[in-house]
Design goal:
By secondary structure, the protein is an alpha+beta fold. It has 3 domains: 110 residues, Beta-Lactamase; 72 residues; 163 residues, Heat Shock Protein 90. It is 43% helix and 28% strand. It has 12 helices and 12 strands. Strands 2-1-5-4-3 form a 5-stranded antiparallel β-sheet. A 5-stranded mixed β-sheet has the order 7-9-10-12-11. Strand 1 and strand 2 form a beta hairpin.
Length: 361
């Protein structure tokens, strides 16, 4: 009597369904027969919606992916593709390592087993960690310099005030006024470079209240024909955050967007939830994603890596502090601001973890 198999088909299916790697099975016509939960999450589609679809229907823009499947099927040979870009309908591009293995049997038609691991997430984690480390180091240097500058500024202002009292000619006070005004201006600049000096006063807030407040403020300031479009997900839970600090961070970015638009333009405020997000060393089950999108001139490629550092600006009249302060405020909430830009479309993405008050304390 033959030995009983150690695991049955149901056990194999359960194992595959619990894998962290996306597993898909296609038949010879490249119709999807099976997708595991990790695959559903990666492709942002349910098994019920995906099963029975042709590869070209499932991923209409993934020409190279379909070619790889056909090549493996025709040659009856496994293939591996690294850092392949797939565009998900309605969700944008992802980067994956993809292994395709053809298999068949006495009672099985030829099929393809596809395993995919999303690598852009790992690349993003590494990039975010580097970005956070650099920003922390930069902030420490800037704060040190700002403190060193503030001390002599106070002495300079005091000396100018004493000199003003001792001047015999009233007309000469015009020059001491200039010294005092410039000392005050530099003092304000140093305070802004030092950033917020209080800990966030966190409570549960509605992120759409923040966006509506910012939208009202910016619309009152606008001198250009700019339309602000709202694309909100009303199901987003409340965020445990400091209301004033999040308003300031969003306001800095939206104001930047208005300045990037020359003439008529559009700014889109979009909110979504994002699952299983890693920011720096922290893993979050759920996060609020706020996209601020403008159709302005875009950010030069040689500047985009440095835009969150103090004093980096593309405008002659800019201080380069708005984005640095926004990033610092969001970082204090365990979040991060990212940016992508092409000519005609710049997107700033604020990511804020969605945890309860008990998680945050």
């Amino acid at each position: 009597m033959p030995d009983k198999p150690l695991i049955d088909d149901d056990a194999v299916r359960r194992i595959i369904e619990h894998l962290g790697t996306a597993v898909l099975v296609f038949d010879r016509t490249l119709t999807l027969l099976f997708i595991n939960p990790a695959g559903e999450m990666m492709l942002a589609i349910s098994a019920r919606q995906a099963t029975g679809k042709l590869c070209g229907e499932l991923l209409p823009d993934a020409v190279e992916f379909e070619k790889t499947l056909r090549r493996s099927l025709v040659n009856d040979h496994p293939l591996t593709e690294y850092q392949m870009e797939l565009t998900l309908p309605g969700h944008g591009p992802i980067t994956v390592d993809c292994s395709v293995t053809p298999f068949s049997g006495p009672r099985l038609s030829p099929m393809l087993l596809v395993e995919m691991a999303q690598v852009d997430r790992h690349m993003r984690i590494s990039r975010d960690e580097n970005q956070l480390a650099k920003q922390q180091a930069t902030r420490a240097i800037v704060r040190g310099i700002a403190h060193e500058i503030k001390n002599p500024l106070g002495g300079l202002r005091g000396a100018a005030q004493l000199l003003e009292r001792a001047l015999p000619n009233e007309a000469l006070k015009e020059y001491t006024d200039v010294i005092i005004r410039e000392a005050d201006r530099l003092q304000n600049l140093m305070n802004r470079m030092l950033g917020p000096n209080t800990l966030p006063q966190k409570r549960l807030i509605n992120i759409h209240q923040v966006l509506e407040h910012v939208r009202t403020l910016v619309q009152a300031e606008l001198t250009k024909p700019i339309e602000i479009v709202r694309d909100y997900d009303p199901s987003i839970p409340e965020v445990y955050a400091d209301l004033d600090q999040i308003i300031q961070a969003v306001l800095n970015i939206v104001r930047n967007a208005t300045q990037a638009i020359e003439g008529k333009g559009t700014i889109t405020l979009r909110t979504r939830t994002q699952r299983q997000l890693t920011i720096g060393h922290g893993r979050h089950r759920l996060a609020a994603r706020i996209d601020i999108i403008d159709n302005g001139t875009g950010i030069p490629p040689d500047m985009i890596e440095n835009i969150f550092y103090p004093m980096v600006t593309g405008r002659a009249d800019g201080t380069g502090l708005g984005l640095a302060i926004a990033q610092s405020l969001v970082n204090q909430h365990g979040g991060l601001i990212e940016c992508s830009s092409t000519a005609g479309e710049t997107t700033f993405t604020l990511l804020l973890p969605l945890e309860t008050t008990h998680d945050q304390k």
